[in-house]
Amino acid sequence: MLLLRTLLHMPELRLSLHTGEDQLDRTVTRVYGTELPDPSRYLSGGELVLSGLLWHHGPRDSETFVRSLASARVAGLAASEPESRSLPGDLVDACARHRVPLLEVPVDLSFATITERVSMELAGLSRHRRLLNVVAEGSGLPALLRAGGHELNARCWVLATTGRVVAGGELGDRDVLVKEFLQADRLPKAVRGLTLVPVSERGGSRLTSWILVVGGRVSEEAAAELASLVGLERLRAAQGRQIENRTAAPLVAAVLSGSADLESRLAAAGLESARLRVLSAVTSDQRADLAAAVLEETLPQALVTPVGDTVCAVAKADDSSPDDVREAMRVLEPGLGSSRVLVGISSPVESRGLRGAAEEATHARRLAGRRTGRTCVVAGEEIALHQLLLAGVPEELRGSLRRRLLGPVLDYDAEHGSDLAGTLKVFLDCSGSWTAAAAKLHVHVNTLRYRVGRVEELLGMDLTEFEARVDLFLALQAG
């Protein structure tokens, strides 16, 4: 029997107690690492819960998380906060209120060390300990999957919901596996002779989870055990990513402002000599956290940071092909529900062109919003200059300009049930060619001349003038 009190007396763990001094005789049955805001469905009682508090954004989050631990009757919570180097006060208060013992983990102590030490006490030289040794040695996710496959007598992979194989080598039918995972009523799930197990769902969203794929049918307990250790590796990677992304916000601010220290910030991020792209992403329900998580999974090497309700990323051009991003977004679609994800990607640029690239990515994202589809990715090099220029004009102003230039024609069409505006668009699209436009409209050239003449009369403009054609072309595109 392992008591919480025993953990506090292990000098190598250096745990300190914040609340629950009268509850230290609780028995620890296992260790469970999580960043879910409500992990209660994965808890059976007696767990020492480990958390890096990635879910924490305020008092309400603490209340939800701790209440779920209390309802599951966990042994206690061991947490660390690398950003502030102290636990949030609202978390301490919530633990005291719900009688959940709270232990603080030193920021320089990995959760893998705690897991290994506790599991050794609980299980001796068990399978779990052998796998924990791999984690504790820092051998990485590929080594853990090989060891897990040996223990389970099955090949193992880790898959992101963008379809990216995180570790494990080639894996077929990835799109199918992701779709089955995202739409499953219950997990783990057997699919095509494989078992799909969730790994550390970020923010409680299955959409940004990892998937442990085990070849063959294995016991849910064994698969969940391996998934929990993969979750520790994911947490370690997330903490490393969090440190790397500390450079993202000031770098993006320097890009947007044209700051003189941009070059030094690029050098600090190891991007000073690379051709780069800027990406701008948003969800239709303005969930910056979801947009950021999606970009991080799609572009593991990018620097990602929220900018208001949108998310901005800077990535090496070779790592951020629009086709690759578009494919990753498409794989995600089954899990989006009613949300849309819109992404604009700049053309590749040198460092001196980053500010313009950021503006291009923003305009491309706005154009994506005017297109259809659950996900839409628009790259700057795919769109015409006039579209980029129009994308930078606010929607209300576009409508006002369209109305000012085309108002009489639009009113005439509404009153007479005609389509002079459509005729004008075809005529301009055909570069003013009477024969090409007439053929496209399936009318006689004389009929086309009459309609265009009516447009000129209504607008008081001469369509032989180049400037007039440009103005009307842009007005039609602004609609």
Automatic annotation (TrEMBL):
Entry annotated with the keyword Repeat: no
Domain named Purine catabolism PurC-like: residues: 7-120
Protein family according to the UniProt entry: Belongs to the CdaR family.
Protein name: DNA-binding transcriptional regulator, PucR family
Every CdaR GGDEF-like domain range: 260-367
Molecular-function annotations in GO: DNA binding
UniProt entry keywords in alphabetical sequence: DNA-binding
PANTHER family in the cross-refs: CARBOHYDRATE DIACID REGULATOR (PTHR33744), CONSERVED PROTEIN (PTHR33744:SF17)
Record domain PucR C-terminal helix-turn-helix: where: 420-478
Top-level division of the source organism's lineage: Bacteria
Pfam families: GGDEF_2, HTH_30, PucR
Keyword DNA-binding annotated: yes
